[in-house]
Queue: 2 jobs
Job 1
Amino acid sequence: MDQNLATFGDTLTWTVGKHNLKMGADFVRNYAVDGFALNRGNPRGLLTYSGSGTTPYANFLLGQPPFSVSYINSPRPAMIVHNWESWLLCAG
């Protein structure tokens, strides 16, 4: 996964007479490329275990051969996602 995070934030305290005003803001942009299928040996396929005598999960843990195997010819492309986050604070 390739991730790029940019953050900008600032605060301001302003005193007017007997009043203290506190303000702040924080902006975050998160951009990520999830290359799971591309960067981890191209995992492709589905292994299905049956429950003969035990549960399918137990057969998997015991290293038994799967009941069926199916393959996908090409991995999915990398997912590119991004989002913005912002926080505003005002206190007096």
Job 2
Amino acid sequence: MSKLRRFVAFVFAISGIAFCIREIFQRGKVIIVIYHDPEPDVFKKHMAYLSKVYNFVPLSDLVTAIQSRDWSGIPKKGLVVTFDDGIKQTYELLSLFREYKVIPTIYLCSRIVGTYRKFWFRAGLENYGRLKQVENSQRLKALKEAIDYEPDKEYSDRQALNWEEIREMNPDVDFQSHSQSHPILINCSDEECREEIEGSKAQLERDLNKSVEHFCYPNGDYSAREVNFVKNAGYTSARSVDIGWNSVNSDPYRLKAMYVDDDATINVLKVQAAGILGYIRHLRKGRFDGTHPPYV
């Protein structure tokens, strides 16, 4: 984390702006925060802070409230905790989920969990971000040529949760869908995109033995096509990485969120949960409507 980011976060934190945003602008709204792979000691500090100033809300409660237009069951200053990808180290956080009585949503990639396959962006290619801008077939070709990567190739080390861990976590965690293999959906063909969305739902429902109702757009990239595919597949919500709060008037297929650095200090966490650093980052890239610059 850069010194500049920490300094900016410190200034906003001590100025009380984050407090004002939480107490005034979040009225009647719910925050969704995004994690990927935080260390247990850092996550414990995060939960200790968040549990004092917010009220944890399961994702399913938020979506039900939006669909029914009944906000009466949503507490003030509600916050939903989500994790993208299903990284294997997330298992180490289970005791903290229980301790702080939070039911996080972990979005799984159905063709990677329970295997020794790798996430394409964790496979060892430097400057992989450029591959987010090309057609899916070109991305796969470039990965094969550069590092001999293939989506179904098994490696010696495991990156994702296995099924034993998932089943142990299942009573305390809401497992949902993050596609099959985490491609950039907007760069996929219609057939590829539909299979990633529909196939992950079917596979996870079979393996989890429960209904899978919520989706998360890989990398946060989506268009009207992806929204329609998600709806047609039978999901009831989809989370983006667009910055903002969620209210009774939110589109459940375009849920907004606040990105949190896995190693954030408490001052950084305060301003990221309030959306301050996210909005600054978006504005620097000319995104005045809150739609996201790319994340992985």
